[in-house]
Structures are given as C-alpha cells and as structure tokens.
Amino acid sequence: MRGWVKATIGLVVLSGLLVGADRIAVGVAEDQAADQLVKTGYLSQRPQVSIEGFPFLTQALSMELDDVRLSADGLTVGTGKQQVELHGFTARLSGVAVSDSLTSATVAAGTAEGLVTYADLAKMMPPASELVPGSGKAIPGGTRLSLSYGGPGKIKAALGPVPVGEGSLHNSGNTITADGFRLSGVAALLNGGDKAIDPVSFTLSGLPAGLTLTTAEPGPDGLRLSFRGDRFKLNG
Hints:
This protein is α+β, with helices and mostly antiparallel strands. It contains five helices and twelve strands. The strands form two sheets. Strands 1, 2, 3, 4, 5, 11 and 12 form a seven-stranded antiparallel sheet that branches. Strands 6-7-8-9-10 form a five-stranded antiparallel sheet. Residues about 1-20 have low confidence and may be disordered.
C-alpha cells in the first residue's frame, strides 16, 4: 500500500511539473508570437496572444497550433489618405502551421472583428462641401459631416445642428459605400430643395495581412467590422 501511495504521489508531482513546464513554454511562445506578428507587419502594434489547447508542447513538436487568439486596441486602418483607429480588435487563427525556420506561418482560416467610431468614419468620407449639392461657399472647405447610428444598417448625418438625412451603409469586399442620403428639412431649404446626395465609397487599406472585410454593420457605438481569411501566409 505504501509503495502504491508513493507511486501515486510521484505521478502527481511529475504531472504538476509537466503542466508547469507546458504553461511556461506556452507563455514564452505567446510573447515571441506577439513580437513576430509586429515584425512581419501582420499587425501595426503588439497584440495580446493566447495559444489555446493543451498540451502546448505536443502542438509545438508538430509545428502546428490549433487555435491562436489575438487582441489589440488602436490598430490603424484607413483609406491610404486618412488613417483611423480600429478599436477592440480580436482575431482567431485556426490551423497555424509554423515553418521550420520559425519565421513564417500558414494560417488555414482566420476571423476577426473590430470597431471604427463614427467620428473616425466621418474622417474617411469627403468634406461636406463635396457631399452636399449646391452648397457652394456656404460650407467652409474641410468641414465634415457628423455621423451617428440610425438603426440597423442605417447611419444619420448632420452638419452641426442641422440634420442632413439618413442613409444606408454596406460593403463589397474592402470597399464600404454609404448611399441613400437625401437633403430634407432645414438642410433642403438651405440648399435649394430636396436633393439626393451621391453615394460615397472608400476602400480600407492597412488591414491585417490575409484578412478581407466581410461585413460593415452600423451599431450604437460605431461601425462594426468583421473580417475573414483562408489559407494565408504570415511572412517573416
């Protein structure tokens, strides 16, 4: 009986040591992965990395990670002319096959999401003087519309205290289009009557490598963006 107890205690201690070693190893790997993701240009700032699954050492020996989670705040995206922040960015990478040199990896599938505030969204759109028909010199150059949530799929626009109208927002790949706006009320009186505002499109650049915009959905706190990518490579 005593020998059995000793053996059991020994196995428990050994298991604890192995688990501890596994957790230490995964912590080191997560730090190195975070540094590598910035070095490769996948992300514009150092993220938090979580390598899921247990044991990690088995995954490391096979050079393939089943499930990698990323999170970061304040990544930069934009149109090439205007850079804005992507808040609350989270990503999940599945089937991450690491190269023998440990300097690159191939991702079987990746999904991600983040948010752009309405204030930043307005920065990516043309100035109000270009959007409001016949405004002439009534709107100083560089003045931008303020945007806000207008309900599912809708955004509201205003020029200071004057509502400009409500329109819809949708995307095709990385290109986002706002359309359906019409001047009404005070805005229409100031600009010669009820007029349609031409659709506005802009293409996002600077997205995490391998990910494409799948949906752009207005929400109460901003424009919620979802991304996806399949079989893409992270190069070192």
